[in-house]
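Translate structure to sequence.
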């Protein structure tokens, strides 16, 4: 059975190659530039997200692309990416962010995805 995943392009150009977010399980990966019009951008997104827990990728000269198991989850990831950018971008005026240790990111990500306000909706569909 083929699984279709929603992809959202938020077209956000917030600048910078490194964003960390416990909600995404680490840095939001940055992918290469690709011309629009064939499969190159889709392949670039897939390759960029491969091996990452993040549902978001920053594609050079394009912006944010997000995935999710349904449209709601993909849009939620796009909104959360925008929120991270609005926090990190002005904070960088005070210097580079101090990286969070991997063990702490893993613990924060687990808490966010399994504990913190992540109760399944009444219909039983988990939107992560």
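Result:
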């Amino acid at each position: 059975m083929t699984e279709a995943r929603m992809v959202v392009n938020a077209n956000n150009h917030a600048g910078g190659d490194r964003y960390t977010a416990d909600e995404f399980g680490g840095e939001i990966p940055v992918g290469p530039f690709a011309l629009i019009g064939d499969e190159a951008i889709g392949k670039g997104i897939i390759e960029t997200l491969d091996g990452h827990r993040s549902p978001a990728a920053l594609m050079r000269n394009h912006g944010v692309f997000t995935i999710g198991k349904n449209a709601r989850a993909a849009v939620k990831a796009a909104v959360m990416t925008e929120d991270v950018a609005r926090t990190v971008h002005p904070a960088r005026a005070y210097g580079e962010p101090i990286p969070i240790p991997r063990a702490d990111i893993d613990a924060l990500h687990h808490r966010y995805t399994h504990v913190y306000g992540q109760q399944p909706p009444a219909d039983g569909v988990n939107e992560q």
